[in-house]
Amino acid sequence: MSNPISVLRRVVPAALIAAAVLLAGCSNPFQTSEDSGSSARSAEPTGITIFYQSDAQPTLWLWETDGDAIFELEGYSWPGPKMSDAGDGWWSYTIPAAYLPLERELQFIFDGSTERHHETSLAAPITADAWYDGSWELAESPDDPEPEPETDITIYFAWDSQPTIWYWETSERRAFSELEGHNWPGPQMSDAGEGWWSYTIPAEFYPLDEQISFIFDGSGARVETTLDGPVEASAWYDGEWEIEDPEPEPEPEPEPEPEPVDGIRVYAENFSHIYYWNAEPALDEVSWPGVELQTHSTGWSYYDFPDTESINLIFSNNGGGQTADLSRESGEWWFQDGSWSDQNPNAPGTPVIQSSPAPGVFDSTQQIELSSSNPDDVIYYTLDGSTPDEGSLQYDAPFVLESTTTVRAFGVNREGVAGTIVDLVFDVDENNDITPPQITSSIPAGSYTDAVEVQFTVTDNAGGTTRAYYTTEGRAATTDDLIYVAGDASSTNGITGGTEYVAERTQFNFLVVDAAGNQTEKSFFYNIGTPDRGDFREETIYFLMTTRFYDGDPSNNVYAWDNAMTGNPHPEWRGDFKGLVEKLDYIKALGFSAIWITPVVKNMSGYDYHGYHSSNHSEVDPRYKSPGYDYQRLINEVHARDMKIIQDVVWNHTGNFGDEVLHPLFQQDATGSYLNWQDPDNHLANDLLEAGARAIGGENATYAALQPGDQFQARIRALRDPLDTEHIYHHHEFKGGWEQYEVQIGSIAGDCQDLNTENPVVTDYLIDAYNRYIDMGVDAFRIDTVKHISRLVFNREFLPAFQERGGEDFFMFGEVATRYRSIWNSDNPNISTPFYTWKGANDYSYPWATREEREASVYQYWQDNLNVSDQPSSDNHVLINNTYREPDYSMFSGQAVIDFPMHWSFNHVSDAWNIAVGGDWAYNDATWNVTYVDSHDYAPDTAPENQRYAGFWPDKLSLMFTFRGIPTIYYGTEIEFMKGAVIDVGPNAPLDETGRAYFGDHIEGSVDVQDFGRYSNATGAMAETLSHPLARHIRALNLVRRAVPALQKGQYAVDGFQAFRRRYTDDEVDSFALVVLDGAQTFHNIPNGTYRDVITGESHTVSNGSATLSAYGAGNVRVWVLYGGPRQYDPGHVLADLFPLQWIN
C-alpha cells in the first residue's frame, strides 16, 4: 500500500467509537501483581537449534565424539527424535539448554529416507544455531544481543484530536507502556499530518511476535483494538489495520552492461541461440545450434564478436524456429521481425511535433491538435511566443486559435529525451485568400485513336497575376519550368493558353500559382492510339496492399480513425505510390512482370487503409500521393519497366458514407469533396443525412448530436427507402443467405453497402469512372466481390464497356469467393467460379431498358441458372494428340477468374492438383485462371484459412508456375512473411501482428535490374530478402516460366500425378514442354527430337516416342523443352547461374 500519511484522512466508523471501552480514573486494569515486577525480555539461553534440509521429515541422532550420547540421556532410542518442520524444506531440532555450552565436537546422523541418510560432524565450540545441507553454516552466537531492527515499528492512528496510546502483549498481559515508565492512559501520540497520529515502539520490545492490544484515548472517547503478531512493520489504524511491508532488502546494484566491443554486436528478440561461421578474421567453429545468447537489461538478447569485421549467422531457439542465413559487418545491429536496424527499434525516438491542421494560412478560426512522433510523448507548448519548457502548458486536448498565432512546442519521450522546439505559425485572418486556382482542358484527358489538339484554361477567385508552369517530361512541374500562360485569371472566362498538338502518349503536368501563393498541381494524360497490352498469360503477378508495402513519403502517413482501438504503433496509411515506384525494381528482380494493387479510389471508413470502402469511385485517394508521385506517375513507371499494372476494383458496394458523386451524405466543397472528409468529429451532414438522423433520433435530432452508433444507423437509413429515392443502393437487408438470391441484392457488411447495379445511373457512373483509369494506362482490373453482382449485369454492362475502352487484350479477372471444395458452390451455378467465365446463350433476350426491368431480369436470370446440368463445358485447355488447337472463345464472357476452388484446396498440393484437372472443363478456358495459395483475405481451407499460409511452399509454387493459369503471390511470401499470423482482425489488434503487416523494413536498400529475374548489386535488407531460399525458388520459377511459352499459354495433357505435357503454337513460336514434379514419370507418344531440361541444362534425344523423367523431392521440378524444329528454339540452361537451389536440385 502507499504510505497512509500521504492520503486523505479516513474517518473512524461511528459503530467502532460506540463500542469503545471507556476507562477513566483507574490504573491499567490488565496489570497483575506478577506483571508489575517483570523486566523487558529474559536473556536466559534457550538452547541451540540444528537445521537440516531434506525433502522428507528426518530423524536426528546426536552424540559427542568422545563423550556422551546426548539423545540417550534424553531418553530417546535409535534413530532418535523426529525433527520439526521449519519451512522451505528445512527441519529443526533444539538441543536443550542443559547441555550448553557445547565444547566438544558433535557427531550427527540425519536419517530422512534411503536416499537422504547423512553422517557428519560439527567442530566445537558450538555457540550458535547451525544449518546443514551438505556443508555447515553457523549463525551468530545466541548469547549475542538481539540485533537492532532495520526499521522502527511505528503505530499510526486516525483521530480528530491528539490521542494517547496504551499497549501491551495480549497473552502475557505485559503492559509495554508501563514498562517504559508511563502511567495510564499512556504517552501522547505525535502529529503525523492529515489527521494521523504516530507513536514508535521502542526497539527493546522487538521482536513483537505475539498479539498486541491497544487502547487509543482522545476527546473523551477511547478505542480498543488488537493487532495480530508477528508485528514486523509499521501499522495504520482507522477502524481496521493496514500493515506496511517490511523495508525490502536493497536490490543489488545491477552489473553494468558490457560496452559494445570493437567488432560486431548483434541483438535479437525471441531467440535463444546464435550459430555463426565465415567470420573475418576467422573464429573457432561452433556446432549447431551454436552458443547461447546473453541477456541485456533492455530485454534484448545479444552476442559480441570482438575485433570481427564480418560474419554469417543464424538465430534460433536452440535449433528450432530459425532465421534464414544472415550476415553482418562491423557495428551494433538489432534484428527484429526479419530485418536489421542500426539502432534499437524499440527505443523511443527523439520527439518530433506535428499539428493538424498543418501550419498555414486560414480564413477562419482553427482547432489545433498536436501530436508527437512517439505515442506516449509529453508535449509542452506556448502561445505567446515565449520559449516553452517543462513548466509551460502541457498539451492534453485540442485548442482553438481565433487569430494569427505562433505555437511553440516540444516533446519529451519516456526516457526523458527532449525534442527540438518547433515553431508552428498559423496565419488566421478572415481576409486571407486561401482558394487555389483551377485549370481545365478543352477536351477530356483520356484515350484517343488519332492525334488531338488541346488548350488549357486557368481561373482564380481573386485578382493579381496567376502563372501556370508545365512539363511533359514525366515529372512534377516547378516554378523553374516553362510558363504555359500568365495573367489576371479572376474573370469568368479566366485565361487560356496556346494550342498543344498531341500525336503520341503525353502527360501534361501543371503547377498553377496565384498572387496569394495558393497552388494547384494537376495532370492531364492523353493516350493516343491503341495500347499493345499483349496476352496476359505471359505475366506473373505480385499482389500487394499499397499502404502496407513501402513508405516512400512519411509526410503523407495517416492514422485511421479507429486507430485508438488497435494499438497500432505506426500509421495504417503508411505505404504510398512513391514507395511503390521506388521498389518496382525489387519486384522485377524477383521476376514478376505485373503488379496487382489494392483499390486506389477515395475511401472513407474507420479502417479504410485497404481501399475496399470507397466514397468516390472517380477520384484517387490523396493519401497515396506525394508531390510528383500521383497515380499516373506510378502507371508510367510500371510501363517504363515493361511491366503491367492491375487495379483492384469494387463495383458491388461503397462504404457507409455514401458516394461523393453518386449519393452524397455530407456537405461538399467547390471540388465536390466532403468538407472535413478525414475528420469524423467534424463531418457536416447534408439535408439527406439530417433526414436520416431524424429517422433515428426523433424530429429534433441532428446528425452531429447523435452518438457514433446512431450516426451509423442514420447513414444507413439515408441509403434506404424512403430516403434513397433514386434507388442508388439496394434496399434489401441481408439476412445471411450466402447461397440465396439475396447475396446479390443485400449489403454483406456495415462498410459494404450494396450498390444497385441494376440501376443505369449506377452502372453509367461506374463505367465512366473506371474508363478514366483505363485511359491512364491501367492494364487490367481485378474485380472484387463478383458473385454479389448478377452475371447478367457483367455481360450486358461492365465487361463489353471496358473491353471496348481497353481493347481486346485488356484483362479482367474476378474474385468469386466460393469457399467450397468443389467446382460448383452448393450446386448453384449463379454463385460458382466457372459460371462467370461464360456468356449466356440468351443474355440479350432479357428486358433491359429501365431499372425496374433490369431488377426483374436479374432475378429471373438467377432462377434460370440454378441447374448445374444446364451449364456448358469446354476443352479449350486440353492438348489433344500433342497438337495445339485454336481455342473457341465465342462464348467467353470476357472475364477470367481467380481459381478459388484450387486456392481453397491448396493446403495439400495433391488436392489442388486433383480439383484442377478434374474441374477445368467447367471454365471457358482454365489457362486464363489466376492462381494463388493465399491472399489478403484467405489461406487454403484447414491451413487454417484465417492465417497467412505457414505450410510447405515450394511444391505449391512449382506446380503454380508450370501448370496452367497465371501464378500470383501475395507480398512477403518470398520470405514467408508473417506466416501463421491471423490475416485480418479488423481494428482489434495492431496491424503489425497480422498478415497485413508493413513489409517495408525487409526491402530497404536498392538493386540494379537488367531484366526480369536478372539483377546485381542488391544492398541492405533487400539483398537479404532476395537471397532468402524461397525468394530464390520463386525467382528461378519466374525465369523458367518466362523462357518457355508453353508454360505461359499452352494447352495441357496429363501423363501422371503432377506430370504433364504442354504446347503453345502461333505464327512465331512452337513451344512443347514435358513437366514432372516430385517423382518419376514415363511419357508416351511424345514427339521425337532433342529436348533440353531448362533446370539442369541437360539435353536428351527421343527417338521412340517415349521418355522417363524424374524430379525427386517436394518442390523439385524438371522442364524438358523440345527444340530444333521449325519455330522451336533452344531455351538453353535457364538456371545456369542459380542451379542447384534448396528445393530445385
TrEMBL record:
Pfam families: Alpha-amylase (PF00128), CBM26 (PF16738), CHB_HEX_C_1 (PF13290). It comes from Spirochaeta africana (strain ATCC 700263 / DSM 8902 / Z-7692). The lineage of its organism: Bacteria, Pseudomonadati, Spirochaetota, Spirochaetia, Spirochaetales. Its cofactor is Ca(2+). This is Glycosidase. Residues 543-1041 form the Glycosyl hydrolase family 13 catalytic domain. One of its GO terms (biological process) is carbohydrate metabolic process. Residues 1-24 form the signal peptide. It comes from the Bacteria. One of its GO terms (molecular function) is hydrolase activity, acting on glycosyl bonds.
